[in-house]
């Protein structure tokens, strides 16, 4: 790759990440008072994060069963308001234990 192409890629990536943050600040000078729009904007990051992460949860393990059990574990811990680090580490631990048990049984 030549230097010009790399610089163009870096500039385009900077614009793609910078513009979505600046455009709302430029367009909306006053506080948004509509409750529907406020709730939509409040839940949007969670929805986008779930749409990006959730499919990869089931594709990242050797078996669907271990991914499903770890996902249920993570959802239960999240519902009980455990911290992000403890939820993530517990889900990883559950996948490790499930994969070990499944391999011992010869299912993986």
Nearest-integer average pLDDT? 89
Unreliable spans: none
Give me the count of strands: 0
Question: Please, how many helices?
Answer: 4
SSE order: HHHH
Question: Distance between termini?
Answer: 41 Å
Task: Tell me the structural class.
Answer: mainly alpha
Strand content: under 5%
The biggest beta sheet is recorded as: none
What is the overall shape?
flat
Overall radius of gyration: 21 Å
Helix percentage: over 70%
What features would you highlight for this structure?
108 residues, mainly alpha
Give a description of the structure:
The structure is a single chain. The protein is 81% helix and 0% strand. The chain has 108 residues and is an all-alpha fold. Helix 3 (64-79) runs antiparallel to helix 4 (84-105). The longest helix has 25 residues, at 3-27. It is flat and about 60 Å long. The protein starts with a helix and ends with a helix. The model has no long low-confidence stretch (mean pLDDT 89).
Summarize the structure.
The chain has 108 residues and is mostly helical. It has helices spanning 3-27, 35-59, 64-79, 84-105. 6% of the residues are buried.
Write the layout of secondary structure elements.
Blueprint: H1 3-27, H2 35-59, H3 64-79, H4 84-105
Helix pairs in contact: 3-4
């Amino acid at each position: 790759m030549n230097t010009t192409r790399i610089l163009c890629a870096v500039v385009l990536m900077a614009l793609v990440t910078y513009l979505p943050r600046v455009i709302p600040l430029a367009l909306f000078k006053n506080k948004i008072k509509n409750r529907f729009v406020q709730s939509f904007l409040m839940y949007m990051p969670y929805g986008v994060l779930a749409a990006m992460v959730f499919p990869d949860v089931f594709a990242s393990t050797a078996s669907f069963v271990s991914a499903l059990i770890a996902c249920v574990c993570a959802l239960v811990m999240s519902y009980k308001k455990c911290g992000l680090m403890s939820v993530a580490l517990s889900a990883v631990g559950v996948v490790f234990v499930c994969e070990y048990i499944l391999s011992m049984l010869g299912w993986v």
